[in-house]
Amino acid sequence: MSERTIIWKGASGKEYKYWIYDIGYDGFDAVPANYIFTKETTPNTHRAIYIGETKDISERFDDHHKMPCITRNGATHIHAHKSSSSKEIRCEEEKDLIDNWNPVCND
Fold this sequence. Notes:
By secondary structure, this protein is of the alpha+beta class. The protein is about 20% helix and about 35% strand.
C-alpha cells in the first residue's frame, strides 16, 4: 500500500481520503474502489484528469475506455481507495468529486 495520501473535497464539502500511486501501478487488490487519474503539476499538487469508480480495481484499467484521453492529458498518478460494494454509494462519491473538480476526461 502507498504511504502517501491526499484529501479530495467534493462539491458537497465532504472530504475523501485517497492513497497516491504512480501511474502504471498494478498491485491493487480485487476490491470495489473509487479512483482518480491525476497529473502532478508541482510537487504534491495534483490536477484531476479522470474520476471513476469500479467494482474491482484490480481489473479496471485493462482497456479503460478513457485511457487515450488520460494519456493525452499527461496522467502521472492514480489516487484510489477501497469503497463500498454498493455501486450507488461509489457513484455518489464519483459525482460529488466530478461536480467539484470538472476533470477534462469526464464528460
